[in-house]
Amino acid sequence: MHTIPLIIFICPIISILLGIIGYITLKKIYPPVFLVAIVGIIATFVWFNSTFTFWIFIYAFLAFAAAFATKVITTKHQQRSLYGFK
């Protein structure tokens, strides 16, 4: 398994998807961020070395940004449908 494509492409996509799905299912921003951080810490000790810790912060930020964007979009959509706009 090549680690560079995994770190640069696959893990960010997974963390963004976890942020979106986590907010949709739980209706809270922080649990997906904590999930990504905990999984990243476990991955640091199991598969990667201590330099992967830098990437954990980036992935947690991506999960937070995705969850926050999902919150903004769903809130705006609910407000628009509440007032009768399409």
From TrEMBL:
Pfam families: DUF2651. The keyword Transmembrane applies. The chain crosses the membrane at residues 6-24, 29-48, 54-73. The keyword Transmembrane helix applies. Keywords: Membrane, Transmembrane, Transmembrane helix. It comes from the Bacteria. This is DUF2651 domain-containing protein. The lineage of its organism: Bacteria, Bacillati, Bacillota, Bacilli, Bacillales.
